[in-house]
Amino acid sequence: MEETLSSIFARTKGTPINFNGQTVVAIIEIKITKPRTVFSIRRLRATNGRVQGLVLKAANGQLVVDSSGTGYPEIVLWSDTSPDVAEIEVLSKSGSTLKIWNVWKSTFGMSAWVGNAGMHVCETGNKMMLECSDGVGDVDFSDYVVTLEEQQYR
């Protein structure tokens, strides 16, 4: 039986791994250096089999997702309830980090980091494409595909 991505990540203590010639990660960490950084997240594809999601967590900061200005330490953008494009504002304190990982809904609730869960990340400038494999079945980086782009303001 082939080793799952989660067991490889456990063995390598979560460091990026090489899977079939591609670098795969369990979590993305983006250092936030400005007091206010805005990201645009665009959903390109979500499998029909399971509800897919993306967790965003601001370590030492807050996330603002709507015009109310209310900040949250962590949010989940679900494929069945969030808009196709969302703007997320990160309000940073000194040394903030935005952490991102993929999740999916199962009979147990929200699942992450088990089975064949992982993300292949393609970066171009200030834009990333996250190709996510949920933990169910074989590795399939087309389970959930989103782009994450830092917005440039003057």
Plain-language structure description:
This protein is 5% helix and 58% strand. The chain has a single domain, classed as Jelly Rolls (Sandwich), CATH 2.60.120. The longest helix has 7 residues, at 5-11. The chain is globular. The mean pLDDT is 93. Strands 1, 2, 3, 4, 5, 6, 7, 8, 9, 10, 11 and 12 form a twelve-stranded antiparallel beta sheet that branches. It contains one helix and twelve strands, in the order H-E-E-E-E-E-E-E-E-E-E-E-E. With 154 residues, the chain is mainly β.
Name of the top-level CATH class: Mainly Beta
Q: Determine the structural class based on helices, strands and strand pairing.
A: mainly beta
CATH architecture type? Sandwich
Uncertain runs: none
On the 0 to 100 scale, the average pLDDT is: 93
Form type: globular
Helix percent band: under 10%
Reported by name, the CATH topology is: Jelly Rolls
Beta-strand fraction estimate = over 45%
The arrangement of helices and strands along the chain is: HEEEEEEEEEEEE
Q: Which sheet architecture does the biggest sheet show?
A: 12 strands, antiparallel
Number of domains: 1
Tell me the Rg in angstroms: 15 Å
What's a quick, concise take on this entry?
The chain is mainly beta and about 150 residues long.
Question: Keywords, please?
Answer:
1 helix, twelve-stranded antiparallel sheet, Jelly Rolls, mainly beta, 154 residues
Strand and helix layout:
Layout: H1 5-11, E1 17-19, E2 22-25, E3 28-32, E4 36-46, E5 52-64, E6 71-72, E7 74-78, E8 85-106, E9 109-111, E10 118-124, E11 127-133, E12 144-150
